[in-house]
Amino acid sequence: MAKATTIKVKLNSTADTGFYYVTKKNSRTMTEKLTKKKYDPIAKKHVEFKEGKIK
């Protein structure tokens, strides 16, 4: 069976609030770690979220 092209990743907040988003990414075209600036409702501001593994 072939390996899936899209994988689920966990975007962890860099504000250390424990908040995270779950999103998909194409592992063949985006080989580097994903970083996005999104809203953290616990910190009540936009912060950078970095990719981590779903456990």
Reconstruct the topology from this structure.
Blueprint (H helix, E strand, L loop, with lengths): L5 E8 L6 E7 L8 E6 L4 E8 L3
Antiparallel strand pairs: 1-2, 1-4, 3-4
Keywords: Ribonucleoprotein, Ribosomal protein
Protein name: Large ribosomal subunit protein bL33
Family: Belongs to the bacterial ribosomal protein bL33 family.
Instruction: Please mark out the parts with pLDDT under 50 across 5 or more consecutive residues, or reply none.
Output: none
CATH topology (fold) name? Rubrerythrin, domain 2
Count of folded domains: 1
Mean of pLDDT: 94
Strand line-up in the sheet with most strands: 2-1-4-3
**Name of the level-1 CATH class:** Mainly Beta
Number of strands: 4
Structural class: mainly beta
Number of helices: 0
Radius of gyration: 12 Å
Largest sheet descriptor:
4 strands, antiparallel
Residue share in helix:
under 10%
InterPro entries: Ribosomal_bL33 (IPR001705), Ribosomal_bL33_CS (IPR018264), Ribosomal_bL33_sf (IPR038584), Ribosomal_zn-bd (IPR011332)
Keywords: Ribonucleoprotein, Ribosomal protein
Family: Belongs to the bacterial ribosomal protein bL33 family.
Pfam families: Ribosomal_L33
Question: Can you characterise this structure?
Answer:
The protein has a single domain, classed as Rubrerythrin, domain 2 (Single Sheet), CATH 2.20.28.120. The chain has a 4-stranded antiparallel β-sheet, with no helix packed on it. It contains no helices and 4 strands. Helices cover 0% and strands 53% of the residues. The mean pLDDT is 94. The chain is mainly beta. The protein is elongated, with a radius of gyration of 12 Å.
